[in-house]
Design brief:
alpha/beta, Metallo-beta-lactamase, Chain A, nine-stranded mixed β-sheet, six-stranded mixed β-sheet, 11 helices, 17 strands, globular
C-alpha cells in the first residue's frame, strides 16, 4: 500500500494532491484526495508516479484552484484514467435559487444588495472577514432529491446560466464607482463556486457517479461501524436531498461571508485492519472546528497532511492536533506531509513546532513527489533524491 504527495508540473508547485491505496474487504482501493493547481499535465503526473489506471474515489475537499484544477484535468482525459466516483462539497446547493431569482432582473439584485441591512453585512465582511450567522430560520417548502433527474438537470445547467448571469451583471456594474463593492461580492461568489460546477458537469458527461457531502458536525458513533468506504468523512455527511429556500439573497451572502477554506471537507483513510494500521488524516485547508479529531482514533505512525500548506492562519488547527499528540501513548513518530504552495505565508507552528511530534516533509524540499510505503513497521519513506526533512522557512527560525 502506498501514499504519494504529488509534486510539480513544469517546475510549478501544485498544492494539495494526495494519492493513496488501502484494503477494503481484501480488495485494493485507489483514492485521490484533491488535484492541486495544474489545469494541464496533472493526469500524466499522476500516471507517471503511480501507474494507476482506475481510481475508485476522487475526493475534492473545497473549491480552491490549488485543490481542484488537477481533477478537472483528469476529467478532461477520461481515456487515460477511469474514475468510479467523485465526492464533492455541496456548498453551492442553493445557488440555483439566486440565479433564478435575479437572472432576468439585475437591477433588483443591485437594489437588494444595497439595502441598509445587506450593505452593512458586506462592509463588515470587507473589514473583518467575519462569518455569516448560519442559523437563519428558513422555511422548508420543497426538496431537490440528489438522485433524481431534476437535480441532475439543475447542476448541469448551472455553468451556462451562471456565466450568462455574471457576464450581464459585470456589464451592468463595471466602471460604476458606487457599484464596485457589489461587483467584488458577486465576482467572489462566482469564482469560488465555479470550479465545483465544472467538475460536476464533466463528471456527468463522463458517466461518473457523483456523491455530494455537506459540511456539518457529525456524530462520533458512526465511525465505529464497519465501513466499506476507503475514505471516512469527519466533518460532513452525504446528502441525498437538498432544500429549496425562499430567500436566495441570504444564501448569496452566506457564500460571500463564510470562509470557504475553513469549511473544507476533512477525511481519514479507512483500512480493514483498523487497529494496527497507520492512519492518513487529510486536513485540507481546515481549522478543524468541527471536532474532527474526536471522530476517529489517531494512531502512532499516522500520516497527517499539513493544514493549509502550513499557513500562519491555521495555527488553531495545529493546536487542536497538538492536544491529541501530547497524550502519553504517542511516540512522536507522526509523519507530517505538506503540499507546498508558494503563495502561503508559513506559520511558526509549521516551521518549528510540529517537529516535536515527528518528521515533516514537503513537496518543495523533496524536489519530486513524496512517496511512502506501508510495511510491517508502518509507513516508510521511499528512497529519494533528498532524504532530508522539510527546511522551508529555516531563515526565519
Amino acid at each position: 500500500m502506498r501514499f504519494i504527495a504529488l509534486n510539480k508540473v513544469n517546475n510549478k508547485s501544485i498544492g494539495d494532491a494526495f494519492y493513496f491505496e488501502t484494503l477494503i474487504k481484501n480488495e485494493k482501493k485507489c483514492v485521490l484526495v484533491d488535484g492541486g493547481r495544474v489545469i494541464r499535465g496533472f493526469t500524466n503526473l499522476l500516471i507517471s508516479n503511480t501507474g494507476v489506471k482506475t481510481l475508485d474515489v476522487v475526493a475534492c475537499t473545497h473549491d480552491d484552484a490549488d485543490h481542484t484544477y488537477g481533477i478537472i484535468d483528469l476529467l478532461n482525459n477520461p481515456q487515460k484514467i477511469k474514475i468510479k466516483e467523485i465526492w464533492l462539497p455541496l456548498n453551492w446547493m442553493h445557488f440555483k435559487d439566486v440565479v433564478t431569482e435575479y437572472k432576468e432582473d439585475i437591477d433588483k439584485l443591485k437594489e437588494d444588495l444595497k439595502s441598509p441591512k445587506i450593505y452593512k453585512f458586506i462592509k463588515k465582511h470587507k473589514e473583518y472577514e467575519v462569518n455569516f450567522d448560519e442559523k437563519i430560520n428558513f422555511e422548508d417548502v420543497e426538496y431537490y432529491r440528489v438522485d433524481t433527474e431534476e437535480l441532475s438537470e439543475v447542476s448541469s445547467s448551472l455553468i451556462d446560466n451562471n456565466e450568462e448571469f455574471f457576464k450581464e451583471l459585470e456589464k451592468e456594474i463595471q466602471g460604476k464607482e458606487d457599484d464596485q463593492e457589489i461587483s467584488e461580492v458577486i465576482t467572489k461568489v462566482y469564482h469560488t463556486l465555479n470550479n465545483i460546477f465544472k467538475i460536476a458537469n464533466l463528471a456527468k458527461k463522463n458517466g461518473i457517479k457523483i456523491r455530494w457531502f455537506n459540511y456539518q458536525e457529525v456524530d462520533k458513533k458512526i465511525f465505529f461501524d464497519d465501513k466499506e468506504e476507503p475514505l471516512i468523512p469527519l466533518n460532513s455527511k452525504e446528502i441525498f436531498r437538498i432544500r429549496k429556500k425562499r430567500e436566495p439573497l441570504l444564501f448569496l451572502l452566506k457564500a460571500v461571508l463564510s470562509k470557504v477554506n475553513i469549511e473544507s471537507l476533512v477525511f481519514c483513510s479507512n483500512h480493514q485492519n483498523k487497529c494496527l494500521i497507520g492512519k492518513i488524516f487529510f486536513t485540507s485547508d481546515s481549522n478543524l472546528e468541527k471536532k474532527e479529531l474526536n471522530k476517529f482514533y489517531l494512531t502512532n505512525n499516522s500520516i497527517i497532511t499539513v493544514p493549509h500548506h502550513g499557513s500562519q492562519n491555521n495555527f488553531d488547527a495545529f493546536l487542536r492536533i497538538e492536544r491529541i499528540l501530547t497524550k502519553p501513548y504517542f511516540y512522536n513518530d507522526i509523519i507530517w506531509v505538506c503540499g507546498q504552495n508558494s503563495a502561503v505565508t508559513l506559520g511558526s507552528w509549521y516551521i518549528n513546532d510540529i517537529r516535536k511530534y515527528g518528521k515533516k516533509y514537503c513537496t518543495n524540499c523533496e524536489k519530486q513527489s513524496l512517496k511512502f510505503i506501508l510495511g510491517v513497521c508502518g509507513w516508510q519513506k521511499y528512497h529519494s533524491i533528498t532524504e532530508s526533512e522539510c527546511i522551508c522557512g529555516k531563515n526565519y527560525i
